[in-house]
Each structure stands twice: as structure tokens, then as C-alpha cells.
Amino acid sequence: MADKIRVLMVDDEAQFRASTSKILSRKGYETTMAASGEEALRILQEKPQDVIILDIKMPGMGGHEALAQIKEICPQVQVIMLTGHGTINSARDSLFTGAFDYLTKPCDIDLLAAKINDAHTAGRKGFPLQEKRARDIMIHIDDYSTVMDTHTVKDAIEQLKRSFEGFVSSSRVMETGHRSLLVFDQKGELVGILSILDLIDAARPAYLSAPKPSMADSMQFSPMFWRGLFTTQVKALALKKVGDIMSASPPGVDEDTNLMEIADLMYREQVRRVIVRRQGKVIGIVREQEIFFEMARIIL
């Protein structure tokens, strides 16, 4: 989609607004924040919005009153209500007064993004509802953590650790790390993937996987054997090259690939991610989480 989806987030908690604005902007949305229902109405009159995320409990004008006035001012805008567990029934009631959907807090950021995309699609008049394709649910390559195959494992661990530290978690919104790095070579070609499981596998001494003599099948290593082994092996891993321990690249699909084809590929290949390409160039990645949220959208 060429134009960014315009999202207005309405919540009275300043930290939540700041955190969510950062996350949504990083995911490619044009995000505006409002501290109250009254401020949201002023913004909506001055600047059109595609989707509004609206907290139910706020000082002054509450979410339900704000929803009613938003629908009077701009009937086509889609509103997603945010609610605590104690007000779920109240959130459900909002569906009868024009809300597109509701989410409970804390809210996973991937689920919130999926709901925003669904609301935007529903708000486009005359736009037929269709099954989504790879490009509709993928994480853009610019938003995924990457590393070079010539970098050391120490470099990769620093990069992966930064991806976790850079994400936001609070009582209101959660964002998690990607748990893997896409690996590129000097030519910019995708050559593999480095996951946490790859790091664990590389840290294990090779002899633990070596065939044992038949008489040793029942042998168990003593506590003394394991003591200090993890630290020693991990330290020895630091200067190895990423290219020496990475896994093969996930299978790839075209951006127009149907979700059932992606699901079938994940099942057959027993993988948790697939690469999305446009004219041969990597543009994104679809994880099992994206497939799950689409399943939840259809069923729930």
C-alpha cells in the first residue's frame, strides 16, 4: 500500500501514548496521539483519520461518548476500543454503537497491527473483502533484524539483544523481539537465518551428538562433567562467523501468495517463517504469529 494508514490513538496515559506512537510509527503507520476524547474530536475535525484506537475509561469524556460523537462527525472512520478485563462487557456493547472491534489490555502489538489493517480495509467503501496475501501480513524487511554472514557471533548476539531492548513492554502494550536474524552476504543476498536455537546448537560440544559405543548407551554424565561447560563453550563461540553456524534461509514466496499456500509450505517444510519476495528481491517475512492472528480474525 503506497499511502500510510492514518491512526489516531486516544488514551489519557502519557507513557502509553509515547510507547505506542513509537511502535506504530516503526511499523509504518502515520500515528497521531490524543490525551482525551475531547482532543480526539478536535483532531478528527482538523485532520482525517483512517482508524481510531480509543480507550474506554478516560477522565472527562469517556470512550463510549467519544465513540458516539466520532461516528457523527466521521461515520466512515473505523474505531477499535481498548479495554481492561473489568470492562469487557462494556467494550462488547460498543460494537452495537459503531465500533469495529475491541481489544483487551495488555495488547500484543502484532495483534493490534492486524486489527488496524482489518479496520482500514473495512473502512474503504466499495473495497471487496478478499483473503489476504503474503504482502498484507508480512513484517517489512526494514523492520526485521539482520546481520552479515561475515560478522562474528558476538556481533550477532549484540544485534539480537538490541532488538529485544529496543522494543517496548508495559502494562498496556507489549512488543517482543524477533528471536532470529536474517543473514545477508556482501552482495546483499539473503543466505541464511540465525535463530536462538542455532546459537544453542552451536554452543553444544560436538561430542555430545557423537555416536556412543553400545556399552555406553546407558551412561549418564556426572554433575562434575557439566560444571562450567556452558560458560566455556559460549565464550569459545564468540569469534566464530555467523555464516558458520546459521541455518539455511527459510523458503520463499511471492508477495501475492495466498495464505493457505503459505500455511501448507510451513507445514510441509516444518518451518516457522517464510521469506516474501517481490520480483526476486526480499521485501519481508511472514512468521507463524502472523498466520495465527489471521486465523483468529476469521474465527473470532
Describe, in plain words, how this protein is organized in 3D.
The longest helix is centred in the middle third of the chain and has 15 residues, at 109-123. The protein has two domains: 6-127, Rossmann fold, CATH 3.40.50; 137-205 and 226-294, CBS-domain (Roll). The strands form four sheets. It has a five-stranded parallel sheet, with helices on both faces. It has a four-stranded mixed sheet with strand order 7-14-13-12. A three-stranded mixed sheet has the order 8-10-11. 28% of the residues are buried. Helix 2 (37-46) runs parallel beside helix 3 (63-73) and helix 5 (109-123) crosses helix 13. By secondary structure, it is α/β, with parallel strands linked by helices. It has helices spanning 14-26, 37-46, 63-73, 88-95, 109-123, 134-137, 153-165, 196-203, 223-226, 229-237, 242-245, 259-269, 288-299; strands at residues 6-10, 30-34, 51-55, 78-83, 101-104, 107-108, 139-140, 146-148, 173-174, 180-184, 190-195, 252-254, 273-278, 281-287.
- Spell out the CATH superfamily of the largest domain: CBS-domain
pLDDT < 50 stretches: 169-174
CATH topology category name of the largest domain: CBS-domain
Helix content: 40-55%
Largest sheet strand order? 2-1-3-4-5
Q: What key phrases describe this protein's structure?
A:
single chain; 300 residues; alpha/beta; Rossmann fold; CBS-domain; 2 domains; 5-stranded parallel β-sheet; 4-stranded mixed β-sheet; 13 helices; 14 strands; 41% helix
Which helices and strands occur, and which strands form pairs?
Elements: E1 6-10, H1 14-26, E2 30-34, H2 37-46, E3 51-55, H3 63-73, E4 78-83, H4 88-95, E5 101-104, E6 107-108, H5 109-123, H6 134-137, E7 139-140, E8 146-148, H7 153-165, E9 173-174, E10 180-184, E11 190-195, H8 196-203, H9 223-226, H10 229-237, H11 242-245, E12 252-254, H12 259-269, E13 273-278, E14 281-287, H13 288-299
Parallel strand pairs: 1-2, 1-3, 3-4, 4-5, 6-9, 8-10, 12-13
Antiparallel strand pairs: 7-14, 10-11, 13-14
Helix pairs in contact: 2-3, 5-13
